[in-house]
Amino acid sequence: MSATKAKRTSARAAPVRRRQARGLEAIGVLTSGGDAPGMNAAIRAVVRSALGHGVAVFGVQRGYEGLMEADLIALNRRSVGNIIQRGGSVLGSSRAPKFRTKAGRQKARRVLEAHGIGGLVVIGGGGTMRGARALVALDGGPVCVAVPATIDNDICGTDRSIGFDTAINTALNALDNIRDTAHTVELLHFVEVMGRDCGWIALMTGVGGGAEAAILPETPTDVDALCHRIDERLSAGKRGVIVVVAEGGFDGGATQLAKEVGAQLKLEYRVNILGHIQRGGQPSASDRVLASQLGVAAVDALFSGRTGVMVGEVDRRVVTTPFDEAIRRRRGLDRDLIRLMSLLA
Ligand code: F6P
């Protein structure tokens, strides 16, 4: 957040010019958990549309951690200028273990009260929504709407979460680069992508990058069958064998899988772990637009009296889903894509 454009809490919030809807005088916005490209576009949309409703807007820095510590800044239209194209979150983010305690959440509630903030938009993944659900449940807790943002794409109630599209394109670019060398110097390649509990990034990268296999947390991996398949392909003249591995898809990750396959086939291999490069970078057009739509939808939901819901996009339409439903289970993988993966490799 540019220090010149945003003032600290001691400063007064921008004057309220218009009618105050549904008793809200001020709202807060925060990003929490693992960051995702497009979060800034969502912050921008929330701030600008809320200002349009005539309320003051505070940015909460460092997620729930900053909320408990009253690390808030008053935001105006200009505070969120020139951020739509940036990865990360200008508000910062955190995982906040203290917020899991009731005492921590009560502290947060008192901070909101002291700032006159009756409504909150939280931008993040499942953990963020669990936090919001607990905050809303407090006696005197704020009204709250969530915007799904996680590169993992594991949230129910939306066809895609903010950041996923950018992350799979980042992973795909890396895969394409590796493919060039894999076709030139014939080694086996294992590429580990993010996804501790969820294989969406691995599956999309595997299909989109023409990998030999995608190793997913959701499905068991048969190492013998994988070796057999690679052997068959190599015997048929295939060059540049690449296996995409979700970080939670195999015990020990791509490093361990490569070791086992390499030993069984007696072939040399290389491992690339893409790691956090998938979380950063310029958000794609699709993530920016989605974030803008959902940011505005979250504010609209708040001002129409909704609380405890997430806004999402299903079949290209904006919908709302109660927190409970959105986080009850992980969003499952597309079975047709899993089939495609083995059909086309
Ligand atoms: O953002 C979600 C995620 O990317 C997971 O796929 C991954 O396991 C996790 O974050 C890793 O994040 P960190 O190392 O920051 O805890």
Describe the structure.
The chain is elongated, with a radius of gyration of 22 Å. It has 2 domains: 205 residues, Rossmann fold (3-Layer(aba) Sandwich), CATH 3.40.50.450; 116 residues, Phosphofructokinase domain (Rossmann fold, 3-Layer(aba) Sandwich), CATH 3.40.50. It has 11 helices and 12 strands. The site of 6-O-phosphono-beta-D-fructofuranose (F6P) has 9 residues, from loops.
> Cα distance, first to last residue?
45 Å
* Order of helical and strand elements: EEHEHEHEHEHEHEHEHEHEEHH
How much of the sequence lies in strands comes to 15-25%
Give the ligands present: 6-O-phosphono-beta-D-fructofuranose
Strand order, largest beta sheet: 1-4-3-2-5-6-11-12
Q: How big is the Rg?
A: 22 Å
Mean pLDDT: 93
Helix content: 25-40%
Name the poorly predicted regions. 2-21
Q: How would you sum up the global shape?
A: elongated
In terms of structural class, how would the helical and strand content be classed? alpha/beta
Number of strands: 12
The largest sheet, given as strand count, sense and whether it forms a barrel, is:
8 strands, mixed
List the helices and strands and how they pair.
Layout: E1 7-8, E2 26-31, H1 39-52, E3 56-60, H2 63-68, E4 72-75, H3 102-114, E5 117-124, H4 126-137, E6 143-148, H5 164-184, E7 188-193, H6 200-209, E8 213-215, H7 223-235, E9 242-246, H8 253-265, E10 269-273, H9 285-303, E11 309-314, E12 317-322, H10 323-328, H11 335-344
Parallel strand pairs: 2-3, 2-5, 5-6, 6-11, 7-9, 7-10, 8-9
Antiparallel strand pairs: 1-4, 3-4, 11-12
Helix pairs in contact: 1-9, 5-6, 6-11, 7-8
